[in-house]
């Protein structure tokens, strides 16, 4: 007998602005579950399989929450495409993890305006995401009328409907055939800026960091953080250099103690065009796969 639900999209709700309404103090809080979200979008419950997984502000998601979500996505992928409603604050990080550790037709979406706004954008985004899930072949973000690859996608505007963009990047192969735990690993982001203290890197090491991402100057220079970076590399801790500049990516060409080219010879890795948060998630996924294979 043929399963009539095969290939029917599964919608997993996690909270975020798309589920938010204003409380008595006027604060936005995630209150609307999946049944209400489907109703808002005019999607008949029979057209999808749906369930609530989380109900939180995505800025509060930790790696244990992400592990649980990835497991839910992986399980749902066994019966068809998946749509995830998600807060925009950390959507690019979850999108990276989904791309690296799950793959396949998974679409993330959300909203810039809450459900009780006079003109909410979430319902249209959800409708678009459900439609796109049946067309895409790899993880994507559908938002503001655009469909973007999950690998490299980033939030570029705090209020505009078209909140996300993505550079044209070659997508690496998926790291694992099923999710591996991220919880228990620690990768810190250390910012480079005028007058930065190399002890910021050492503090991350002392706190047990398994890896470090430097949000570097320009093309990948770390400035006075160089001594701390050198200490990390000597200790066998991977260091990835991402640029704090929105476009152009890392080009390790400068010499000197804090120059990217000098540190490349010492073993730093380039994040290319990934943002610091994306580079952190990429490194976390790599470390998780390595840990699982030991």
TrEMBL record:
Record keyword Hydrolase present: yes
PANTHER family: 60 KDA LYSOPHOSPHOLIPASE, L-ASPARAGINASE
Single GO term (MF): asparaginase activity
Binding site for substrate: 58, 88-89
Residues annotated as catalytic: 17 (o-isoaspartyl threonine intermediate), 17
Source species: Corynebacterium kalidii
Family: Belongs to the asparaginase 1 family.
Domain L-asparaginase N-terminal: 11-170
Enzyme Commission number: 3.5.1.1
Keyword terms: Hydrolase
Asparaginase/glutaminase C-terminal domain mapped to chain residues: 186-289
A GO BP annotation: asparagine metabolic process
The protein's name: asparaginase
Key word Heme present: no
């Amino acid at each position: 007998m043929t399963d009539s639900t095969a290939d029917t999209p599964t919608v997993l709700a996690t909270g975020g602005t798309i589920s938010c309404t204003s409380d008595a103090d006027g604060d936005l809080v995630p209150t609307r579950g999946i049944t209400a979200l489907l109703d808002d979008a005019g999607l008949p419950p029979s057209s999808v399989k749906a369930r609530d997984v989380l109900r939180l502000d995505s800025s509060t998601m930790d790696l244990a929450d992400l592990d649980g979500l990835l497991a839910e996505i992986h399980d749902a992928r066994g019966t068809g495409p998946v749509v995830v409603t998600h807060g925009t604050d950390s959507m690019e990080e979850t999108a990276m993890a989904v791309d690296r550790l799950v793959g396949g037709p998974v679409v993330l979406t959300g909203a810039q305006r809450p459900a009780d706004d006079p003109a909410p954008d979430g319902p249209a985004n959800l409708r678009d995401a459900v439609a796109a899930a049946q067309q895409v072949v790899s993880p994507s973000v559908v938002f503001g009328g655009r469909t973007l690859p999950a690998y490299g996608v980033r939030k570029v505007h705090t209020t505009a409907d078209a909140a996300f963009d993505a550079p044209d990047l070659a997508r690496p192969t998926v790291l694992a055939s099923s999710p591996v735990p991220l919880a228990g690993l620690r990768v810190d982001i250390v910012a480079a800026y005028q007058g930065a203290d190399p002890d910021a890197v050492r503090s991350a090491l002392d706190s047990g960091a398994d890896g470090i991402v430097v949000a570097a100057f320009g093309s990948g220079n770390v400035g006075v953080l160089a001594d701390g970076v050198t200490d990390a590399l000597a200790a066998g801790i991977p260091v990835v250099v991402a640029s704090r500049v929105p476009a152009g990516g890392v080009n390790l060409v400068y010499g000197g103690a804090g120059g990217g080219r000098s540190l490349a010879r010492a073993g730093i890795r380039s994040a290319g065009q990934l943002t610091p948060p994306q580079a952190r998630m990429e490194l976390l996924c790599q470390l998780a796969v390595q840990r699982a294979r030991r």
